[in-house]
Write a structure and sequence with these properties.
Elements (H helix, E strand, L loop, with lengths): L5 E3 L12 E8 L3 E11 L17 E6 L6 E8 L1 E4 L2 E15 L7 E11 L3 H9 L2 E15 L4 E11 L5 E11 L7 E8 L4 E2 L5 E4 L2 E5 L18 E2 L1 E2 L5 E2 L2 E2 L3
Parallel strand pairs: 2-12, 8-11, 9-12, 9-13
Antiparallel strand pairs: 1-4, 2-5, 3-4, 3-7, 6-7, 7-8, 9-10, 10-11, 14-15, 15-16, 15-19, 17-18
Amino acid sequence: MGLVLLVVMGLSGCTGRAVESFTLEVDLPAQFGLVGDASYTPAPGETCKLPRRHGKRPDLKIFKAASKPVANRVSFDVPLTERVEGCSLMLRKLVFAINAKWGERWSDVGRDYAAVYIRDSWETEMSLMADTRVRDLPGQCQWLFRTIGPQHALIKVLRCNSLSPGGQPTRARAGGYVSRNGLPGKTVRMVLALTEEEQPAVGDNWVKVAGGWKRCRGESQEDIFAFCRGNVSDFKAFKMPDGRLCGIYPTCD
């Protein structure tokens, strides 16, 4: 797979000094991209402070990966320590905005977030990292559909969650926790799989029927919130992204 890597340096290390680091890999579905930052704080015992300078954050390192029409893996080298203006810094976390496209219009995009947190000590995690060079952080993304506005236009919302050891989605965002002591020279791989199953974004708005989902009517055709509230026989049409008025999503029967 091709790699896409763009690192905008917000921190400057010391020239000629070896810096401990690890490799972060992210498996992205087709039409998915990301923008993230690695956040650093003064190391234990340091009394220095890092003020903002001309709108810049010297405690951040920014990572970007553009979306591609096919699934791909991106890779970043992430320093565990940095030194800025004589101040020793340690990596604390990485937070990513996951951006994905679900339709043809420029506005047909969704966003969710993932995070990797660095723990200073965690015996179980240290053992896991010692036994392998790659630590997987499995996650699953899913499109959730809903309607908005007086025309009940259908849009989609992106949700990405981590997976349990048994492969089931959890309530936690994609990513996870890793131990600092087990990271140098290793690879952390965040895998984002996209499930084909879509679900309603708002509860008690839709009723499952043969061929898909029907939108509850609510109090009237003009009711933009339209909760079912036990009425599972009266429905309303909604507007698909291509302009069609439909009664069932996604088949438009």
